[in-house]
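hi! just following up on the protien thing from before. the input was this:
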Amino acid sequence: MNATKAPLARALLHPERFTNIVHPIRSQPLSTTLRRYADKPTPPTPAPAPVATPEEPKPVSAADLPSPLADAPRATGKAVEQFTPKPLPRPIGLPRPPRSGENAGVDTRSWKQRRDDFVDYDKHIVKRKILTQKMATPYFREWSNMRHHKGKSFVAPPRLFRADRALYFPNLQGQTLLKDAEVRDTTPVLSDRISIVSVFSSAWAEHQAASFVGAKENAELHEVVAASGGRAQMVQINVEENPLKSALIKLFKPSLRSKMGKEAWGKYFVVTRGLTGEMRDAMGLLN
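and the predicted 3d structure came back as:
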């Protein structure tokens, strides 16, 4: 028998002799818990991509809008021999809502902006075009246009224009018949009210406007305004850019006050600057 197997055989034949050499086996409890693998880190939620804010459309100038009075006679351009006023197919006015303080006729540019504009060739071309139109305006053209239906350029449409298609009356600044020299804006007076606005530039034009909206000439209109409970009003705008004539209007203010009620003094404006030719065409002030 092999020497290495003899001790093992004796131990198997006589186990009681070797009990003192048996080492106790320490039992270990079995764990039924499954080993958890390391959780994968949750990827961070990507930040939402910034939504591109749509740019506000740039306001369109009055010159870019199609004019519903393109065929009407006016002081500039080619003389019109035959003309019949038609109902307005589209609204007249400016595309931008008016704001108080606009069209004051005061140059608010800084010295740097004035210098930049002075060396800007494109702006010189625009100014040259405006001056050319003024110099080419025949002096008696507006008088000769009066032969066309007494100077009427259009007829009121049979129905009102929709609010989303209507345009705006510009803000103008001028003194009123109130007994102070404060310059006021037309926008606060016209806001949230139905206004019948008369725009004229001389005493003759004022009489011409009165033939449509005067108290004697159109008594029914004044009755409707009086019965509106303040929702409707009559507003008069006297545009006089000549310094001498505007000074004469100031002298005759007491006479103008005596011809109208005190409640109408703040609704009679004397505008001396700020009304450009582009605004006149957009508003239909062609004569």
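The mean pLDDT is 79.
The two ends are 142 Å apart (CA to CA).
cheers
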